[in-house]
Amino acid sequence: MARDAPVHDTVMAGAVIMVRTFSFSKALLAPAMALSLTCAALAADVADKKKEPVAPSPAAAPAWDMTFGARIVSDYNFRGISQSDRKPGIQGYAEITYQWLYAGIAANTVDLPTKPVAEVDFTYGIRPKFGPLTFDIGMIHYWYPDEKRLFYPAGTWWTPANTDFYDIAGKVLYSWEDKVFIGANVFHSPNWLGTGARGTYVSGTFKVVPPLPIEGLAFSGELGRYDLGRTSASLGSLKLKDYTYWNLGASYTYKSATLDLRYHDTTLSKANCFLNSSDPRGILSGSGQSKWCGAAFIATLSLDLSLSGLGLIK
User: Fold this and answer.
1) What was the pLDDT predicted at 2?
2) 190 CB contacts (<8 Å, ≥6 apart)?
3) Is 5 a residue whose pLDDT tops 50?
4) How far is 124 from 140, CA to CA, in rounded Å?
5) CA 309 to chain centre
6) What are the extents of the domains in the chain?
7) 11 pLDDT higher than 70
8) Which of these CATH numbers, 1.10.760.10, 2.40.160.40, 3.40.50.300, 1.10.510.10, describes 64-306?
9) What's the rounded Cα separation, in Å, for the pair 197 and 192?
10) N or C end of the chain, less CB within 10 A?
11) Burial class (CB in 10 A: 0-12, 13-18, 19+), 275
């Protein structure tokens, strides 16, 4: 007859089985807990991200726009030479842009030797932008409607019958954080002011917005050189005088209005200024001189608007 196993052996065997079962359960539980914690962390992260406000993407610039404005000037100065006989004038302009393309028109009151009713400028071209660089390649047509050829009783034609002309223009502008602007420009006309002389104007410009508490204040200037050729035979085959022109000034902009105060000057003498401009005063007085090209302090008050700025297009 078989004998029963000792009680202590049975107890020991059960203990071993319980320990092994606990160890196995622990081995399975550890990865499960780790997975559960990971899932909880991911869920919390997703929840936090959902709560974070999403920054709106910047509004894209409209494909087309229209800018327009008007100016009052104490003297209309064009590359160093007065076009209004040193008197105040009114100017207005409008320009339509579509992506890189642009076309515009501007009108200026003038007082010139041929006595046109105004100067009307037509502009068109392309204005691509690559990072901080903006290029402008186009043409400018200068139209002087209802002008009359200046004829002195002595039998001399002092001006062409038609002074309309055009410039081929190329410009580049570098912008640094909208605080510093540096530009280079070249304009060329094969028939400057209808005289038959070629004219090439090259200039450099700058504009600085200083780090001052006064917002809207800026300083700017230009240094240019005009290279002029010889007039047609009907005007005496005269060699027009090359000259250097420069201006320096400050402007203050508040909303859409800008006040600009600027000093202008050239290297032209009064006699050479008369040669280039045919100022009627130099003819009538017999002096052969003109003050149109000398030093001038000019104030300009302008208003510049756009359809996008007014919220009329988006």
Assistant:
1) 41
2) 198
3) no
4) 7
5) 16
6) 8-52, 64-306
7) no
8) 2.40.160.40
9) 6
10) N
11) buried
